[in-house]
Every structure is written in C-alpha cells, then in structure tokens.
Amino acid sequence: MAPRPLIAGNWKMHMTLVEGAKLVDALGMALAEATPKPACDIAVCPPFTLLAPLSEACQKYGFGLGGQDCHAEAKGAFTGDVAAGMLADIGCTHVIVGHSERRSLHEESNADVKAKAAAALAARLTAILCVGETESERDSGKAEEIVVAQLLASLPDGATAANMVVAYEPVWAIGTGRTPTVAQVAAMHKAIRAALDGKVGDPAGMRILYGGSVKPGNAKELLSVENVDGALVGGASLVSADFWAICSTCA
Ligand SMILES: O=C(CO)COP(=O)(O)O
C-alpha cells in the first residue's frame, strides 16, 4: 500500500510572526471545515524565529512543524546554529536537511547532510532529506545516477519509513515555474525507491516527496505519479489558499 502522502510547506526566509500565525490559522480553519478531509499529513517549516510561537497552533490543528536545518552536534560553541534537540524541545516534529539552497549557498556536503540527518533521528525528529540534480546534471543524461549517489551518501544509519522522508527536488525546478515531465518524475522516484531497498527500514513505506514549482495547477498531476508520496512546496506554501489547494488534491 502506498504511504499516506505528506504535504510540507517550506517557507524559507519568509513571513513575520503575524503573517505566519495568520497562515497557520487559515490552514487550520480550512482543515476544520473540509468534508471530506484531505487524505494527507500536513506540515509547515517556518524560519527558526517562528517555530516556538507557532508550535501550539500546529499541535492544535494536527500539523507537523519542521525546522529548515539543524546542526549535526547536540550542543556546543556553534554561534548562530540550532541543534535538532532544540527543535524537538519546542515542539518540532520534522526538520529539513540537505536542501539544495543549503548545499549550494552554505556548501553543505553529503557527509554534512548525513550528520545532520543522524542528529535529527537522534532527536526523534523526522528528517526530510533533500536530494536533486542541477540542470547540467539533468542535461548530462545521468540525473538518476547522480541523485541516487547523493541520496546514498547522505543517508544516515537507522533511517526507516517512520523517521525519514526523502524529498526529490530538481535544483532547476526550484522557484523557476519549470517542472520535470511526469515521465522524468516517475523514473527518478522509481530509482530512489529502488535505491532505498536494503538501505532503510520499510523502504516501500518511506515517503518520497516531489518538490520544485509545485502549484495548485500541477499538484494533482505530480501527486498522482507512482512513488510520489507528497510534496515539498516552496513559494505556493506562503499563500494559504494555494497551499490548501495543493493539500486538497489528496483525495
Ligand atoms: O525548494 C522548494 C521546497 O523546498 C521548492 O520551492 P518552490 O516550490 O518555490 O519551487
């Protein structure tokens, strides 16, 4: 049986406290009024500053709450960093690790991502482990090989369907309005699923999200692809009606 989808919003470096609270409340109201309820789990990943203040509302509405990054160490002299345990302490359920913006702008290696994912698991958070190819890698015709290698090098020990989610985000599709074809998404998710076999607990049950320019207009098509078990949504997660419309495509 396919896993229950997860629709997660990555707010990136957006939203004030007032805006974020309004957005979560709007989603909570939409969920309360919906009949039937969308057949998916919903999570939001606001910036660090909003995690604690939004924690209670997310819990009330049954939304997951995720950080966008964490440090690999549990504590120490790491000015500006936040430990996975600190996220768990204020009510987070998830943390994104290895987002391409962290990999490129902060030069995070697969080894760094693996250590962060391991820290997330140790803190009993669900790690949302991101992988994806660049445009030139896609053009090389080796996208699947490259993404699978990235995944295997970033995979922490002890990952299972219960504590980890993979997010496939082609770098060239992020914030560009461009998406891979259904055939490209299907081939990549199939390759990721195959690569998980023997490497994680319950590989068939591990959710593999698609991310990169997911919008209300293309969500249904992308989410209906085999082995696509949800979405990691950037820009469209900042507008409650759009994010809700994406969640609502899960019937
Ligand atoms: O990076 C993303 C989610 O993590 C995708 O961003 P967009 O949905 O804005 O393309």
From TrEMBL:
Where is substrate bound in this sequence? Answer: N10, W11, K12, G175, S213, G234, G235
Active-site residues annotated for this sequence? H99, E169
- The EC number(s) attached to this protein equal 5.3.1.1
* Class of this enzyme: isomerase
Listed GO biological process terms: gluconeogenesis; glyceraldehyde-3-phosphate biosynthetic process; glycerol catabolic process; glycolytic process
Domain of life where this protein originates: Bacteria
Pfam families named among the record's database cross-references: TIM
Reactions catalysed, as given in the entry: D-glyceraldehyde 3-phosphate = dihydroxyacetone phosphate; L-erythrulose 1-phosphate = D-erythrulose 4-phosphate
Q: Got a GO cellular component term for this one?
A: cytosol
Instruction: Provide the assembly information.
Output: Homodimer.
The text of the family note is: Belongs to the triosephosphate isomerase family.
This protein is called: Triosephosphate isomerase
Species per Swiss-Prot/TrEMBL record: Oceanibaculum pacificum
Q: What is the lineage of its organism?
A: Bacteria, Pseudomonadati, Pseudomonadota, Alphaproteobacteria, Rhodospirillales
